[in-house]
User: Which sequence fits this backbone?
């Protein structure tokens, strides 16, 4: 038969076994939760890397297209400058008034509608450069817009 002392020791032993099993269960649960959290972090990092790679690919496509368009613009500008400097192409603007206008208003009106003033080479080169800068700015803005639109997809 169990005396009080042995019963008390048995109760303590059973309590320690229950406490040990309970804490081991919590410890295992914590370890399992940490493992699951680490796996979720790895999956999230993989998704971020895939998105980053896709974005880098899109950026490279946009940059390549932009560089090709700028190269095309520069080739056209070079050709235009060569044509102007060789005299193959002359730039002119409509004339709105002339120093030697005829006295007859009808003749003057006809001359003003058809008269043109030629632009000298330096002014033509300046206008070509301004147009080139404008084209480059437009292409840069278009490249940014295109990249933004690709990111939205």
Assistant:
């Amino acid at each position: 038969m169990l005396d009080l002392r042995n019963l008390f020791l048995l109760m303590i032993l059973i309590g320690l076994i229950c406490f040990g099993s309970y804490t081991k269960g919590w410890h295992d649960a914590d370890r399992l939760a940490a493992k699951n959290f680490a796996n979720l972090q790895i999956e999230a990092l993989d998704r971020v890397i895939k998105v980053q790679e896709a974005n880098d690919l899109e950026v490279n496509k946009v940059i390549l297209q932009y560089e090709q368009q700028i190269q095309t613009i520069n080739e056209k500008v070079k050709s235009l400058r060569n044509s102007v400097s060789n005299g193959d192409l002359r730039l002119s603007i409509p004339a709105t008034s002339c120093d030697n206008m005829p006295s007859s208003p009808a003749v003057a009106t006809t001359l003003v509608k058809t008269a043109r003033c030629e632009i000298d080479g330096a002014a033509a080169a300046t206008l070509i450069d301004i147009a080139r800068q404008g084209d480059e700015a437009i292409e840069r803005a278009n490249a940014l817009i295109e990249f933004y639109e690709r990111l939205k997809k």
